[in-house]
Amino acid sequence: MDIVILDLEWNAAYSRRLQGYINEIIEFGAVKCGEDLQVKSEFSCFVKPQVGKHISSTIASLTNITDENLEEGLPFMQAAARFKRWAGDCLVMTWGTSDILTLIENCRYFNGREKVPFLSRYVDLQRYAQVRMGWGTSNQVGLSTAAELLELDVSGMDHHRAGDDSLITLEILRRVYDREAMGPFVDVCDDEFYRRMTFKTSYICDLRSPLVEAGHLRFACPRCGGESKRTTRWSLKNKSFRAEFACKACGTPFAGRLIIKQKYEGLAVNKKTFPLPEIQEPRKAQPGPVGRMRLEMPQGVGVLRFPEYDGLGWVNHAFTTRLGGVSGGEFAAMNLGFGRGDKDENVARNFELFCGAAGFDAQSLVAGAQDHHVNIRRVGGAEKGIGIWREKDMESIDGLCTDVAGVTLVIYTADCVPLYFIDPEHHAIGLAHAGWRGTAAGMAQVMVKRMEAEFGTDPGKLLAAIGPSICRDCFEVDEPVAKEFLALAESEKFVTKPTGTDVKYHVDLWECNRQFLLSAGVREGNITLGGVCTMCESDLVFSHRRTRGHRGSNCAMLALQ
Length: 561
What we know:
- This protein has about 550 residues and is α+β, with helices and mostly antiparallel strands.
- It folds into 3 domains: about 1-200, Ribonuclease H-like superfamily/Ribonuclease H (Nucleotidyltransferase, domain 5), CATH 3.30.420; about 205-275, no CATH class; about 290-560, 4-Layer Sandwich (CNF1/YfiH-like putative cysteine hydrolases), CATH 3.60.140.
- Helix content is about 25%, strand content about 25%.
- It has 15 helices and 28 strands.
- The chain has a 7-stranded mixed beta sheet. Strands 3-2-1-4-5-6 form a 6-stranded mixed beta sheet.
C-alpha cells in the first residue's frame, strides 16, 4: 500500500449558517511514496474559499498565500475528489491530528457527511515519531521543532506551505520509520475512529456530577499515608477543585487539588497534595527605601516608585503593594486581580483607591491577556478600559506600548518581572510582563525593537527599569527550565549551577533581562534595577511561590501625563 503524507493550510472564516467560525481549507499539499519511502508523485491544489471572502492577514503573512492565488482554486469537494483519485488506496499520514479534524469539519460543512472520502487507514505521524524518538507524548512537538531535533536540513523549504510541509514530514518519516513498529499506530478509519477523533475532552466542574465517585474526593496524608479529613469546603479554580485536609493519624495539615477530565477512554482523575500556603498579614509599613525603590504612602496606600524617575514630570509610574486596599484573607489588602476568587467589587474599589493615591486616572487603564509570550500591542485612547473595566480583546499580549498621553499601561505580576520603558526623545512608553519564559525568549529586547519600529526610539537614549519580582536566590528551578537559560549567550552571568547537596539551579531573571537590554542597545547607565524581591518581601507585595498560588495580584502601571 502506498503512503501519502498530507498537509493542509486553512483560514478561519465566519459562517452565518453556523453562527460561528469554520477552519476553511485553502490548500492541499501531499507527497506519495512506496514502502521504500521514495517519492512517486506530489499533489498540490489551492481551494477556492466559499465561506470567507478574504484570507486573513495573519494567514496571508504566515503562508504567503494571496486572495489572487485562491481565485484559481477548486471548490472544496472538487479538490477532495481530485485528491482521492490521485491518492488511490493508501495509508494517509499527517503531522498531528489537526489536519484530519479540519478535513472532517469541511466534509461535514460542504457535503453533510462526517467521513472523509479518501480516508481508509491513517497514522498520526507526530505521535509515532515522538514515541520512536523517546520525546514523550505529554506535549506535542511541532513540525519545525521535530526537524530541528533530528538535525534535518530544511533550507529552501517554505514552512507553512502545504507542499513543502509534506516533504519535511517525509524527511522526518525517513529518520524514524520502522514498518513493524508502525503497525500499532495504524488506525482503521471506521465509525469508532471518527467518534474518537471528534470526541472533545471536557473538565468536570460540578462535584454533584454522577461521574464523580466518593473515592475521587479522598486524599491520603502525604506524610504517613493515613486517612485524612477535609477541613474546608471545596472551591473551584482554573477547572480544578481545591480543599484543605488534616491527617486523622498524625495531624499533618495539607492542601489537595483534584482535576477530573472526561476523555474518550473514560475519566482521568488527577490528585495532588501540597503543603498549606504561607499567608502573611500585610506589614505595618512606613514610607522609605525598599531595595533600590522608594515606598510612598499617599492616603494610606502603598506605592513603590523608582527614585531615578523623579525628574520625569511628563511620566507617571508605579508598582502596587498589599497596603491600603479593602480585600481580606489571602487577598489582603490591595488585590488588583479579577478572577482570582476575590469579590469583583473589592477589586474595583482597590483600583479606584490605588489610582487615586498614585495619580492615575482609573478609567484610563489598559491591560492585555498575559500568557508568557512576547507579543506586544500598541494602544491608544480607543483601548482605555480594556482588560480592566471592559472585556479583554487582546489575547496573548504580554507587552503594551503607546505615545498617547492619558493612557495607563497595566501589567499583572506576582513574581514575574515587570519591565518599564521610557523614550524621553519621542515621549513614548512601554510596559512588559516577563515571566521566566518571556525572559528567556527575550521580551526585553523585543520591546526595544518594537518601540524602534513604532516610534523611532533610539535604544541608546531609552530608559529601562526592572521592577519588583523574584530574585536569584529565591528562584530555584529544575534542569528543564535551566536549559532554556543555559542556551542563551553569556548564561554564566545569570545561571548558577547546583553545588554540593543543592540539586536546584538558580536563575537571576533581573540579570538575564539586563543582558537582553544591553544587547538591544540600551546603555548600561540607563537601566534601573529595583532590587525588590517579591518572595523576600511577601508581606509587602504578593508572591505566587511563597503562597503557592493563594494570593492577589500586583500591578505595574505606566502613563504619559
